[in-house]
Design a protein that fits this description.
single chain, 328 residues, alpha+beta, five-stranded antiparallel sheet, four-stranded antiparallel sheet, 43% helix
């Protein structure tokens, strides 16, 4: 029995007994010396804040009531693999948006690290071996994120100032938050906008001064949220009105075949070795940006309106390169 196992065992004994237990009896049950019993007791107190007390005159150990009923060791049911998984999840959460939940998750992280250290499982090593590189992420205020998260959990309305990038129509909004969505390294608040009387996705980095209202939030069922916000392409979603048919050249097809552009996409390999991808979309803004990333490796086959939009943007880009080259 190693040190951590003895800590758990001592906790179990003291929690189960309704009377003080002598150090000799504890030494027998923990299979150690009486001096080790006291070292284990000290670790239980210092590392986990256990309410261990000693009976005056006899030195027998016990948990006072009702403290014993309200105290439990963290991670008592976790094995080493599960602890590693917890640390990995914590690393992902912190690295996805530094500073947003650091303060809240720090106590859990520290306790898990202490458990791993006691078990000689490489304290801190996992955090150094996981690296997350976020591309084009936009920083958000930690207080803003916490306020939005609290309103979501408490199911309260929010009043906030919103600065949309697509227009100059900034101003106060009253919204009923539905969920927070992490999309392409950035956070969005899916909410019912009471001014627009419709569902909207708000970029969290463009939200200022959110305040929680005492009024209950309007509830939108999950299937309706998915139907309205998750079925069309990207964050510029809405109900899908078109299907984009994209044909990727063979040189790029091997990469695209392993990617998920949309949860309801359809795809197939064509007889000529090219790869066909069908994507539902409503607002084409983000889809156009993605298509342009692949230059001449992709062709829009349908619909004709999207095909013309892509062609016009490529023609403008080519003209700009020709014009700027002549001006140099």
């Amino acid at each position: 029995m190693d040190r951590l196992d003895r800590i758990y065992a001592l906790h179990g004994i003291l929690k189960a007994r309704r009377y003080p237990v002598s150090r000799q009896q504890l030494a027998d049950e923990l299979d150690c010396s009486e001096s080790t019993v006291y070292r284990v007791r000290d670790a239980l107190i210092s590392h986990f804040g256990a309410p261990v007390e000693s009976e005056e005159g006899t030195g027998r150990l016990y948990y006072p009531r009702p403290e014993a009923d309200n105290f439990e060791l963290p991670g008592l049911w976790f094995n080493a693999s599960e602890l590693y998984a917890l640390l990995a999840a914590q690393k992902l959460l912190v690295d996805v948006q530094p500073g947003v939940i650091d303060a809240e998750i720090a106590p859990l992280r520290d306790r898990i690290n202490r458990i791993l250290s006691h078990r000689r499982l490489g304290n801190g090593e996992l955090a150094r071996r996981i690296r997350i590189l976020s591309i084009a992420d936009r920083p958000i205020e930690a207080d803003t994120f916490r306020t939005l998260a609290a309103a979501l959990i408490e199911r309260r309305r929010l009043t906030l100032h919103y600065r949309p990038r697509s227009s100059d129509r900034s101003g106060e909004r009253e919204v009923s938050p539905q969920r927070l969505t992490r999309y392409r390294d950035n956070w969005y608040l899916d909410a019912w906008c009471h001014q627009r009387e419709d569902l909207r996705s708000f970029a969290v980095d463009r939200i200022d001064n959110p305040r929680t209202s005492a009024e209950a939030a309007k509830h939108i069922d999950e299937p309706e949220l998915d139907r309205r916000l998750a079925t069309a392409y990207g964050i510029f979603s809405g109900e899908p009105t078109n299907i984009a048919v994209l044909i990727f050249q063979h040189e790029r097809a091997e990469w695209i075949a392993d990617e998920t552009w949309h949860p309801e996409q359809q795809s197939r390999w064509r007889d000529d070795g090219r790869y066909e991808l069908r994507i539902p979309y409503g607002d084409p803004t983000e889809l156009i940006l993605d298509i342009l990333r692949y230059g001449d490796d992709v062709e829009v086959a349908e619909p004709e309106t999207l095909r013309r939009q892509i062609a016009q943007k490529l023609e403008k880009a080519a003209m700009r390169y020709r014009t700027s080259g002549n001006n140099q």
